[in-house]
Specification:
Largest sheet of chain B: 6 strands, mixed
CATH architecture of the largest domain in chain B: 3-Layer(aba) Sandwich
CATH topology of the largest domain in chain B: Rossmann fold
Shape of chain A: globular
Structural class of chain A: mainly alpha
Order of helices and strands of chain A: HHEEHHHHHHHHHH
CATH class of the largest domain in chain B: Alpha Beta
Largest interface: A-B, 28 and 37 residues
Oligomer: heterodimer
Number of domains of chain B: 2
Number of helices of chain B: 11
Order of helices and strands of chain B: EHEEHEHEHHHEHEHEEHEEEHEH
Radius of gyration of chain B: 24 Å
Helix content of chain B: 25-40%
CATH superfamily of the largest domain in chain B: P-loop containing nucleotide triphosphate hydrolases
Largest sheet of chain A: 2 strands, antiparallel
Strand content of chain A: under 5%
Structural class of chain B: alpha/beta
Strand content of chain B: 25-35%
Distance between the termini of chain B: 28 Å
Number of domains of chain A: 1
Radius of gyration of chain A: 19 Å
Number of strands of chain B: 13
Strand order of the largest sheet of chain B: 5-6-7-3-8-9
Distance between the termini of chain A: 34 Å
Chain lengths: 262, 324
């Protein structure tokens, strides 16, 4: 375990060092993040006027959902996209060979090799939105509800990661799966609105097949004291199930890896 | 150290006709066919041996190397490397081997090699003190100094390959799989990499399997060669035996005091070239001493040189003639 921890520290130190190698690029990225954030806030202000509700959620509550979505989107920028997006490149260029020849779990390497600090301000803003929305909605934070929210956020993160990793792993056969991950990201964007805003068929889809509901709506419900225990258990169960599926699928896919020719 | 028995690999590859129609057909209904990359290959390599792996492009060298590393699952046959089945890719096995590919790199492009080395040290569980000692030792052997703290993208090809070798050897592997490690390097850089590999093998007793397009790599390092063609093993033995097998004749070059008529060389091997005083003959190996004695006796010889025809020409010729 110590070896994995030390490796992770080195991974992230080199990731930050690579980013800082190009000073201008860092500035441009920060600028891009600032512009994208102000864009989404503007959009939000258009969507939710103070008097409006959406699927029974008032605007302060919807703001909490938007905050949670922003946190996950930032997480995707910081962690998922740089790492899982690189799997396709590794397969196409044959550099996956070097990963597979290291005496360390290849899924660990591919999932945590790098990070992009560009998404961190987005996570910060998401948490800010969540806090402000909660305050406006009159949420009273207790220790049990805080713990439950954290657990549900972890479960949501695990679901998102596993779905993304499952798609990235198919590049072993199909090589280029960038389009598929873009579709996934677009679907996840549906998590920025409360689940009740959608028709029943889509609600079912977003709960069981592509469980975006557990990323945003359910944690917000926990804070509002509206979450039902079966829903929480279902979220945890799905997280474990998706992670196990991603793990098993990766081990299965590796048997078909043919390595790019030299 | 390495045991291979009846190893085969069959790939399924997609076939696509040229042009737009072909592209559309390929997109809608993909046609594939099976290609045999390696067929029933068997050999054994003892600990500490340095073995050259020869063959034309697409002969199956890299596929075999990748099966030995455990990157590709064999379609048939058995492989054992350092007592392990490579395709299981156990950590214990991976700590004992390394793969260097001349065409791919593991060093981080934007950072100095030292950063990649520190990552590798952590991955292999090597303490900082031990890693520092090993890096110093290997850097001395490879004549690397401040290059280790310069971004990889600023290094020359030769310096980069030496840094790649350092990264690949940091964990002191016992088995080295080297796939074209000198590819694209200039003559001096090639020679330095060769010297390093010979010295590393002498010091550590590591087993080395080396593929190269440069015959000089093989002749300098590998007493034994495996020749593979169209996925089949064609030769396994000393390089000289391969030369004997491929070229039963030796080349004799003469520089004479004065020109001689071509028919004067009748019965003295095959006359390949006669250009004034310069003569080139191909003489069967078993008649070499007799013929050389006769040449010295009959002609006013100023200089005489006996050599094997270059091995790459022999192998190339063999492939072209389809004799293999």
């Amino acid at each position: 375990m110590g070896r994995y921890w030390r490796t992770l520290r080195r991974f992230w130190c080199t990731a930050v060092a690579v980013q800082l190698e190009y000073q201008v690029n860092v500035l441009i990225e920060l600028l891009a993040v600032a512009m994208s954030l102000s864009g989404s806030l503007f959009l939000l202000s258009l969507f939710y006027g103070p008097e409006q509700t959406l699927g029974g959620w008032n605007w302060a509550q919807a703001l909490m959902v938007q905050g949670l979505y922003t946190v996950f989107d930032g997480m995707a920028t910081t962690w998922l996209r740089p790492n899982l997006g690189a799997i396709v490149t590794h397969v196409r260029e044959g550099t996956l060979d070097f990963v597979l020849l290291k005496p360390i779990d290849s899924q660990f390497w591919l999932s945590l090799r790098t990070l992009s600090p560009a998404g961190l301000p987005e996570i910060g803003l998401g948490l800010g939105l969540l806090g402000w929305g909660s305050h406006q909605a009159g949420v009273v934070l207790t220790l049990p509800s805080l713990c439950t929210v954290l657990v549900m956020l972890l479960a949501g993160g695990l679901i998102l990661y596993s779905l993304w990793f499952l798609i990235a792993a198919t590049s072993i056969w199909f090589v280029k799966t960038w389009n598929a991950t873009e579709v996934l990201r677009a679907l996840l964007a549906s998590g920025r609105y409360p689940l009740n805003a959608y028709p029943p068929a889509l609600r079912l889809l977003f709960t069981l097949v592509l469980p975006v509901a557990f990323l945003t709506t359910v944690p917000a419900q926990v804070l509002l004291g509206e979450a039902a225990a079966p829903m929480l258990l279902a979220g945890l169960g799905l997280a474990v199930l998706f992670f196990a599926a991603a793990r098993a699928f990766w081990l299965f896919a590796l048997r078909f890896y043919t390595s790019a020719s030299s | 150290m390495i045991q291979v028995e009846g190893l085969s690999k069959i790939y399924r590859v997609a076939e696509k006709q040229p042009g737009l129609a072909g592209t559309l057909r390929h997109f809608i209904r993909r046609r594939t066919r099976n290609v045999t990359a390696v067929q029933n290959v068997s050999f054994k390599i003892e600990p500490g041996e340095m073995v050259g792996f020869l063959g034309a492009n697409g002969a199956g060298k890299t596929t075999t190397l990748k099966m030995l590393c455990g990157l590709i699952h064999p379609s048939a046959g058995e492989v054992q490397v350092a007592g392990h089945r490579p395709q299981r890719r156990q950590a214990e096995f991976l700590r004992r081997i390394t793969l260097v590919m001349g065409q791919k790199q593991q060093l981080l492009w934007d950072l100095p090699p030292m950063d990649s080395l520190r990552v590798n040290a952590a991955v292999y569980g090597i303490s900082d003190a031990v890693a520092r000692r090993r890096i110093n030792e290997l850097a001395d052997l490879l004549e690397l100094g401040e290059e280790l703290t310069r971004p990889v993208r600023k290094l020359s090809l030769g310096q980069r390959m030496k840094a790649e070798l350092l990264a690949a050897l940091l964990h002191e592997p016992e088995v080295l799989f080297l796939d074209e490690p000198t590819l694209g390097l200039d003559v001096n850089a090639q020679a330095r990499v060769r010297q390093f590999l010979a010295e590393y093998n002498r010091r550590t007793g590591a087993t080395v399997l080396l593929t190269s397009h440069y015959m000089a790599d093989i002749t300098a390092l590998c007493p034994r060669v495996l020749l593979i063609h169209q996925g089949r093993l064609f030769h396994d033995g000393p390089l000289e035996a391969l030369a004997d097998q491929l070229a039963p004749e030796r080349e004799v070059r003469l520089e004479l005091e004065s020109a001689v008529a071509p028919d004067a060389f009748a019965g003295l091997g095959r006359l390949e070239q006669l250009d004034g005083c310069d003569v080139r003959l191909l003489v069967p190996r078993d008649q070499l001493t007799t013929v050389v004695a006769q040449l010295l006796d009959r002609f006013p010889v100023r200089d005489l040189d006996v050599s094997d025809p270059p091995i790459e020409e022999l192998i190339g010729g063999l492939f072209r003639q389809g004799r293999v």
